[in-house]
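We treat protein structure as text, and this decision shapes the records that our systems exchange. Because each token names a local backbone shape, the row as a whole describes the fold. For reference, a complete record is included directly beneath this paragraph.
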Amino acid sequence: MPFLGQDWRSPGWSWIKTEDGWKRIEFFGHNLGENNNDIDLEELCDDNKENLFVGDMCEVAAKKRKKNFYNNNTKSQFVYKEKWIYVQKESTRERHGYCTLGEAFNRLDFSSAIQDIRRFNYVAKLLQLIARSQLPSLSGAAQKNYFNVLEKIVRKVLEDQQNPRLIKELLQDLSSTLCILTRGMGKSVLVGNINIWVCRLETILNWQQQLNNLQIPRQLSNRMTLSDLPLHMQSNILYKFSDACDIINLGQATPTLHMLSEDWHLWKKLCQFHFTEKQVCGHVILSERGHVDWKLMYFTLQKYHPKKEQYGDTLHFCRHCSILFWKDRHLALVFKDSGHPCTANDPDNCLTPVSPQHFIDLFKF
């Protein structure tokens, strides 16, 4: 029996008749600005009266403008600005194939995420994990999109002068991976010509040089500085840090901060935050005076155990509908919007924060 209603699985493709034959009109996005390359509706009506209904003309014109906008204003034709994606791990009668890591990286809006200070470290860590092991598994479009996002991150760091150390580590891992893969070109599954990858490697080396030459100018102003705060407030600020390198770098600013950064209570709390009690008890290090050297213990534990990851905001995975998405906290508070089309009675109880490593593990079949 034929299905007479609207097919919910796919709206189908839109086609237009041209001098060269029938061509498919592709849809690339939603929120677009004005474009001067609009097609003439009257001309479209005259040429295709036998092929298009009057009600479809506006839709065809809108899709044509959207296509021209992306082709003329982006480096990659695979540009999406979606906040969620359905993670499909097997074929069904309605859906064939499965969702890959490259598809998820393409469709989720990472370009906008790096502009959010809460999500910047998350995206940078994800790019670093992909660079270490998952780069060959990306499709050609995903690899191109990867380097577009990476370029935006480097530009942001050079302009804002924030988080240079994190991006240096990312570029170092990426350059090491590319050196190995380009040497074995033909044996690896890197998509594209060898010259393209050599050019990308040269670009990465150039970015590394720019970051190494980055100098943060000293701020000359009469405003209150960190050194003007009372000692207990400076100490409280240090206790908010979760990265040992940040504590050491801040301790080099002034003698007072250096004294506060050497406080054993600070390093004890840092060890307890990143490592379990069992891990701490297995690597007890005593100083010459017989006291526990918590600072040395932290760097020793770091060699044997992974540190606890902490991010301001992460991707979320809905266990009820298998959707991976960015959760908009403002919409969640004001409109009680879960951030994705969930059919559960209580969507919040179905959400699981997704770490960068968990994001990659979701697409290992």
Remarks:
- The chain is about 50% helix and 5% strand.
- Residues 27-58, 69-80 have pLDDT under 50 and may be disordered.
- The beta strands are 14-18, 21-25, 84-86, 315-318, 323-326, 351-354.
